[in-house]
Design goal:
mainly beta, 13-stranded antiparallel beta sheet
């Protein structure tokens, strides 16, 4: 299976310490099995989050140490199609564009920087609910740690980074029964580069699995593969 996602997202400062995050994903999923080949595409589940800035010493010019801590939460709405069919049968829930459920998210982001060097830590916890088909995706959480270096060159800035990323999911349930071949955990090594020019930023990130334990049975062979992401940001 391969999963491709184009995501439009925005961050808006609605108060001095409050930021609104919103994202609208468009997914293209391709599955090639021994008995079927399926492609689905369309809008996925929209997310809206509010983050509160607990600590921000970035404006203290005389201090070489700078700390930022944001925390908050929000909701993932059931805007994506979760009833796509192939030959009259519902496609596997993992492969659908959406989950069909309203889910709740908590997250926190901490950044510490000394002169041009820094560390970024992040964690997200998602609590999933039943959808109308009485299917519930397992609760999920992820965490990341990245070391970065900030290099300023006139109008340009470079931000190379390396780190680790961890994700885990509980098993899914269907009418209260655990589903085989769902859930598990994986560790990824990641590296990236962000390039800033005036109000525009371009980023590239590559994640490669280094350890994983998926809840697969004796028949299925489930494993995470490498992931990559390209981003384009405009600050206004």
């Amino acid at each position: 299976d391969s999963y491709h996602k184009l995501e439009l997202w925005g961050r808006f400062c609605i108060a001095q310490r409050v930021q609104l995050f919103a994202s609208v994903p468009y997914s293209i999923n391709f599955m090639q099995g021994s008995h079927q080949t399926v492609t689905v595409s369309g809008i996925g589940d929209v997310s809206v989050l509010l983050n509160y800035t607990i600590v921000n010493t970035g404006e203290d010019i005389g201090n070489p140490w700078r700390h930022t801590l944001l925390a908050g939460g929000g909701v993932k709405l059931p805007t994506g199609d979760y009833r796509q069919e192939d030959n009259g049968s519902l496609v596997n829930p993992n492969f659908q564009l959406g989950t069909g459920s309203t889910d709740f998210v908590l997250n926190a982001i901490y950044t510490v920087r000394y002169q041009n060097y820094g560390l970024n830590l992040g964690a997200t916890r998602q609590f999933n609910t039943l959808n109308p088909e009485e299917y519930r995706f397992g609760n999920q959480w992820n965490a990341s740690a990245q070391l970065f270096y900030w290099r300023q060159m006139k109008n340009w800035s470079l931000l190379p980074n390396i780190g680790m990323y961890y994700e885990a999911s509980e098993m899914h349930t269907d009418h209260g029964f655990n589903q085989l071949n769902t859930g598990g955990e994986a560790w990824f090594a990641q590296a990236g580069l962000d390039v800033y020019y005036q109000d525009i930023a371009v980023g590239f990130t590559l994640k490669n699995p280094v350890a994983q334990a998926m809840n697969s049975d004796d028949i299925a062979d489930i494993e995470a593969r490498e992931r990559w992401m390209v981003s384009l940001i405009y600050n206004f």
